[in-house]
Structures are given as C-alpha cells and as structure tokens.
Design goal:
Layout lengths: L2 E5 L7 H11 L6 E4 L5 H11 L2 H18 L4 H11 L6 H25 L4 E4 L22 H5 L3 E5 L2 E3 L5 E3 L5 H12 L3 E5 L21 E3 H9 L18 E5 L6 E4 L9 E5 L2 E5 L3 H6 L3 E4 L2 E4 L3 H15 L5
Parallel strand pairs: 1-2, 1-7, 2-4, 3-4, 7-9, 8-10
Antiparallel strand pairs: 5-6, 9-10, 11-12, 12-14, 13-14
Helix pairs in contact: 1-5, 2-3, 2-5, 3-4, 3-5, 4-5
The structure holds aspartic acid and magnesium ion.
Length: 330
C-alpha cells in the first residue's frame, strides 16, 4: 500500500533542504509526495498580488531560480515567466488563488526534478484535486478523474499541496496551511491508509514549547482530539486536516528523525492531550474534557474545555501528572 508523505514548507528553504527531503523520501516505496511552497513564499505571493511589485517578483524568482540552478533541475523558468505575466491580471479572488498556486507549483517542480536526478521514476502532478469555486477556501470534491492517474503511475508521484482546480480548470486554494489537508484528502480519495506529515516539529506537542518548556510529544492521539486541537488553532493547522481520516486510515505527524505522533480512529491515553492558549485562558483538549467541565470548565467542543488560567498552569494541572504516571520519556 502506498504512503502519502507531505513535506512542509518550513523544511524547504534552500537547495540543501530539497536534497534532505528527497533522501528522506527514498525510505518509502513509491510514495505519493505532497509538497508545500518554499517557506515564506505563499506570503510573498499574496503580497505580490496586492502590490504587483517588480522587485518582489524578482525576489520570488531569485529564490526559486537559485535553488533550481544549484540542484541542476529544469522547469521553473516557464513558471516564473508565467508569474511575471500574471502581474498584469486584474484583481479577483480567482486571481489571488492563481498567484498563490505558483508557490506549490514551483516547489513541486523542483522536488520532482531532484528525485529524477537521483534516478527515481518520479512524475509531477499539478493540482489533481478537483474543488468547487470557493476561491481562497475551496472545498475538495470526491472526483477521482485527475487523481486516478497518480494511482496508475508506478513510481514516485510528486503532487502540489494546498491547491486544487475547478472543473473548468482554474486554480483554487483550500485555505492557509492547507497542504496537510490536501495530503489527507488525497489519501482518502485514492484509498491509501497511511499519511505522513513531515514538519519541523518532532510530533504533536502537549503545549506550545515556547510557552510551556516541559511540553511533551504525544505518542498517540484520536482523530477527534486532533480535529478539535486543529480547530482551536494548534500550530496554525488547517482545521480540516483530519476530516478525511476515517476507518483504518492514520496520520503520523513527525520530523525527519522522530517517531512522531500517530493519529487514528482509536482511543489512546492520556485523557488530556493538548493545552492551547484560548483568549485569556487555556483550552484543554482530551477525551475526558467532561471531567474538566464538572470542575467548572466550559465546553468549547465535545472533547475540549476552557479553563481560566494560563497554559502553563493548565498543563501542570491536567497534562503533566499523566506523563509522570505513565512511563513516557519524550
Ligand atoms: N503554502 C501554503 C501556506 O503557506 C500551504 C501550506 O504551507 O500548507 O499556507
Ligand atoms: Mg504548513
């Protein structure tokens, strides 16, 4: 069974990072690889859409042309020319999505080139997910007409994350941070069970380590908990990331070296998993949120409750004790 492996944009900054990602990908057999835009590029493209600044265009061009040149891969020049021509387009939500589409189209073109140079039979698939025309926040449709080709390609398939296309062929985007969502959606559409989301964090953490230094990596999490954590803004994850994860599907959130967090349709300890900053207080996500509500917390979801204290306290109170009890060392 093929694996869908998504490489986050935070891991794609320069030429050597593409090589690092490509090496990691060789540990999977003919994976379907979902690629995000190079770090910061989506923001730059939005700015470019607004300002139509020549110098900003040049920065975006140079980032990609330099990486492509260092790696000896072709195919970015035509895209960069196309982006240049886009500077003359009128405003409109479809045009903004068109601008944003270049981030993933460029990075996926580079990644495909790197994998091919490594001797792999890699093929590029641009926006194989069909969506409605709700530009900026498009809804993927259960339409396999383009994606089926991925399934029939026997080598590595490199796919642009985040973007889709309408039935009449216009590029759409599924919302910021949406390449994880396109990865899980694609897996579901093609009937693959395992999705690996590779990011710069070793896994889903029990809290933001910037705020709570003793935050731990969760070994496991249920889909429901992950959905609530994403909805409540965990790591700016797209709220729909885990929606397609049904039945025997599961998702691993990890970096290149960690074992990461496995998210699936099972119930796993501890009862409280993630503490997030929620306004003045904290949201605690876990299957036993009910118990926190009994203590005076307020439901913010079926498996999450708001408590009036800073994340560090909430973490000490609800999460930490279980890590001390269980023999978890992470
Ligand atoms: N490149 C897109 C963004 O920055 C999608 C993603 O990175 O997941 O929002
Ligand atoms: Mg992302």
């Amino acid at each position: 069974m093929r694996v869908v492996v998504k490489i986050g944009g935070s891991l794609l900054r320069g030429a050597q990072h593409f090589v690092e990602a490509a090496k990691f990908l060789t540990s999977f057999e003919s994976p379907v690889v979902v690629i995000s835009a190079v770090k910061g590029v989506t923001d730059m493209l939005i700015e470019l859409y607004k300002t139509r600044s020549e110098s900003l265009y040049e920065s975006i061009r140079d980032i990609h042309a330099d990486i492509a040149k260092k790696l000896g891969v072709s195919g970015v020049e035509p895209l960069l020319k196309e982006l240049k021509a886009a500077l003359d387009l009128p405003e409109g939500p479809d045009v903004l999505d068109y601008f944003m589409s270049f981030g993933e189209r460029l990075s996926a073109t580079i990644m495909n080139g790197v994998l091919r140079r490594m001797g792999l039979d890699s093929k590029l698939f641009v926006a194989p997910i069909i969506t409605d025309d709700n530009f900026g926040n498009a809804n993927p449709l259960e339409d396999r007409s383009l994606a089926a080709e991925i399934d029939s390609h026997e080598g590595v398939a490199v796919v642009t994350g985040f973007i889709g296309r309408t039935r009449d062929g216009r590029f759409t985007t599924v919302g910021r941070g949406g390449s994880d969502y396109t990865a899980t959606f694609l897996a579901k559409l093609l009937g693959y069970r395992r999705v690996v989301l590779v990011t710069d964090s070793p896994g889903v953490m029990t809290a933001d380590p910037q705020e709570v230094p003793e935050a731990k990596i969760l070994p496991m999490m249920s889909v429901e908990e992950a959905m609530e954590a994403a909805r409540l803004g965990a790591k700016r994850m797209h709220p729909r990331t885990f929606e397609p994860v049904t039945g025997g599907m599961y998702v691993e959130v990890r970096n290149y070296w960690s074992r990461g967090t496995v998210i699936g349709n099972f119930y796993a300890p501890p009862p409280y998993k993630v503490v997030l900053k929620c306004g003045e207080g904290s949201c605690v996500v876990g299957l036993e949120a009910e118990e926190i509500v009994k203590l005076g917390g307020e439901y913010v979801g079926r498996f999450s409750a708001l408590v009036p204290m800073p994340p560090k306290w909430a973490h000490d109170l609800f999460v930490k004790p279980y890590f001390e009890k269980l023999l978890w060392t992470s």
